[in-house]
C-alpha cells in the first residue's frame, strides 16, 4: 500500500489554490470540479463536497493535524509570507527549538495548520 495524497477541506478552492501556489509554489495538476490536485500530493476539496460526504460540520483550526514544509531560508520565507498575506494568523511566529531547528506555524485561509521549518 502507498499513501498517494493528503486532502484538506477549503471554503474557497480558487483562493486556496492561489495561496498554496503563492506561498509554497504548488501548481495545479488536475481540476476535477471541487477537487484540485496540486503538486507534492496536496488535494484541495471544496467544503460543500466534504460536508455532503460526511453529513457533518467542518471544524477549522482544530489543531489535530498539520501540513509540514521545510525551507532553508526561513527568514526569507516569513518575509515573503507577510508581504503576500499580511492577514495570516500565526500559532507561533518564527522561533528556534532547543535542538536548533527554526519553525513558524500558521493557518491557511481556511484554518488548516501549517508548519514550516528549517531542514533538520
If you had to describe this structure to a student in words, what would you say it looks like?
With 120 residues, the protein is of the alpha/beta class. It has a single domain (6-117), classed as 2,3-Dihydroxybiphenyl 1,2-Dioxygenase, domain 1. The chain is 26% helix and 34% strand. The chain is built from three helices and eight strands, in the order βαβββαβαβββ. It has a four-stranded mixed beta sheet with strand order 1-4-3-2. Strands 5-8-7-6 form a four-stranded mixed beta sheet, with helices on one face. The longest helix has 12 residues, at 13-24. The chain is globular and about 45 Å long.
Alpha-carbon distance between the termini? 27 Å
Instruction: Note the quaternary state here.
Output: single chain
Q: Structural class of the secondary structure composition?
A: alpha/beta
CATH class term = Alpha Beta
Write the H/E string, N to C. Answer: EHEEEHEHEEE
Question: Which spans of ≥5 residues are poorly predicted at pLDDT below 50?
Answer: none
Provide the gyration radius in Å. Answer: 15 Å
- The proportion of residues forming helix, as a percent range, comes to 25-40%
